[in-house]
């Protein structure tokens, strides 16, 4: 019976630790417009990733890396030699690292409007992804109730066996 309690304690502890690790992740929004890759890096609490390392390379050419840093607001702008399929990664404090493929934005619209609009849309999407919904809360409560139900089942089974032996 003690092993069941230990298992449940470890399971709950694992769930809590996994949630804590997810709570402070790093995100990056980037785009290639002409020969400039621009974007922003930020943490899940929407604080900017200040003065973090940004690395960019063409897919399949990891040796030819171009690097830069984010500013105080987490924004970066790095010139690249040619258009192509780029991979961008940001390395932040405490081992945070995020990597993404850089999408190409067409040059038909005005550059400042499309850049800021694209970045804002991506940030809004990331905020929605990280939002806690009622279904997630109810699902967590359901898991907890289920775990206690399993414990109650095994305790009742054990008590029934003891009562049968005593009779």
Descriptive notes:
It comes from Morganella psychrotolerans. Keywords: Membrane, Signal, Transmembrane, Transmembrane helix. The chain crosses the membrane at residues 132-154. Residues 1-23 form the signal peptide. This protein folds into two domains: 26-105, Sandwich (Immunoglobulin-like), CATH 2.60.40.10; 116-166. The protein starts with a helix and ends with a helix. It has 167 residues and is an alpha+beta fold. The protein is elongated and about 85 Å long. 44% of the residues lie in helices and 26% in strands. The strands form two sheets. A four-stranded antiparallel β-sheet has the order 4-3-6-7, with no helix packed on it. Strand 1 and strand 2 form a beta hairpin. Mean pLDDT is 79; it is low at 19-23.
Brief digest:
This protein has 167 residues and is α+β, with helices and mostly antiparallel strands.
CATH homologous superfamily of the largest domain, by name? Immunoglobulins
Estimated helix fraction:
40-55%
- Poorly predicted residue ranges: 19-23
Give the terminus-to-terminus CA distance.
22 Å
- Mean pLDDT reading: 79
Strand line-up across the major sheet: 4-3-6-7
Oligomer: single chain
Q: Count the beta strands.
A: 7
Please name the CATH topology of the largest domain: Immunoglobulin-like
Largest sheet: 4 strands, antiparallel
The shape, in one word, is elongated
The overall number of domains is 2
Tally of alpha and pi helices: 3
Instruction: Tell me what the CATH architecture of the largest domain is.
Output: Sandwich
Protein name: DUF4198 domain-containing protein
Keywords: Membrane, Signal, Transmembrane, Transmembrane helix
